[in-house]
Write a structure and sequence with these properties.
single chain, 109 residues, alpha+beta, Alpha-Beta Plaits
């Protein structure tokens, strides 16, 4: 069985990031010891909490086991776009540390 974390980011027609969905499991190590999954999970949760709690940006958030999605409802100052860009960059870098365990996609919403 192949394990991989998939991170799908969406952009609007103005090329601004509007949301993400992160699913899956890296399968790098046993559950509870998988530093790849822990790194991704921590970054995703911190980004979602920063968007909704620290910046008070309106967003729809859905959390299920190994599946978290966030869609910005309003981002008048562009801070949500910047935070999502930070997460996307982080996931690319983590993916370099753990080849074949994380795939990052960007598409139109």
């Amino acid at each position: 069985m192949i394990h991989m974390i998939i991170a799908d980011f969406t952009k609007n027609s103005d090329d601004k990031l509007t949301g993400f969905r992160v699913t899956g499991h890296a399968g790098y190590a046993d559950i509870g010891e998988d530093v790849c999954c822990a790194s991704v999970s921590s970054a995703v949760m911190m980004t979602a909490n920063t968007i909704t709690d620290a910046f008070k940006i309106k967003a729809d958030v859905t959390v299920d086991e190994n599946d978290l999605s966030l869609t910005l409802r309003d981002d008048p100052d562009g801070n949500g776009d910047k935070l999502l860009l930070g997460l996307m960059t982080h996931l690319y870098l983590v993916g370099e540390e753990f080849p074949g365990r994380i795939k990052v996609n960007v598409g139109a919403d």
